[in-house]
TrEMBL record:
This is Undecaprenyl-diphosphatase. Its EC number is 3.6.1.27. The chain crosses the membrane at residues 44-62, 88-108, 114-136, 188-209, 221-239, 251-268. The gene is uppP. Signal peptide: none annotated. It is found in: Cell membrane.
Amino acid sequence: MDVLLWLKYLFLGMVQGITEPIPVSSSGHLVIVQELMGLKQEGLFFEVLTNTASLFAIAVIYRQDIARLISSTVKFILTREKEYRSDFMFSLYVVIGTIPAALAAVLLKSQIEQFFSSIHTVSISLLVTGVALWLIRNLRGRKRDGDLSVRDALLVGLAQAVALIPGISRSGATVISSMAVGMKQETALRFSFMLYIPISVGGIILSVSDLTQNPERASMAVPYVLAFAASLVTTYFSMKWLMNVMAKGNLKYFAYYCFAVGILLLFIL
């Protein structure tokens, strides 16, 4: 039975890792898979654990961008040299774009937790995500990193706040809204995952009590470690795959997937 439980958590970690970067909702898929496997997670401990692994993987992929943005921001503040202004403004827009989701998470944390038990909510949210992906499938924006505005950041930030609902993909919501305001695909993807980093760190901080007070930490150490490792590895490769998909402009296939899974859930579960 222990081995079976370990395999279930290993699979859950893989589901989180694969679906976190791509626009199909990792939280929604965790709800679905846990329902199918008969697992019930109390609170946000497991999602925060596997999300932390995803955060590490994405930070590794964007490590050069992160280092450059931090360095340029500090240099611009100290010197006001124009060569650092673009990166400074991009960093500022990331901060602005983080505010809506941060406020929603703080004010609506308990309500958000309740959504995790609703398969019906997930199915409807997946269909909404699918429609949005379909609508922007052919968009090819012109805005690069240095062309963004406060309005762009706020609109994308509001989309990220809506994505706190399970089934609404965070990456999907932010990539879709970024492309909708005119960003190039590469910029949209970078901005989306720069937004993911602070909101993910904030989620970890907000869930410290869940992490420290979880009574199953000792007895579930092995399953949790397996899930963390699986999420870390699969997030890395899933993110690389998404970059390739975005470069080829094939987001419509994610829309098909969201439609299929959303309709299936409505009629079967």
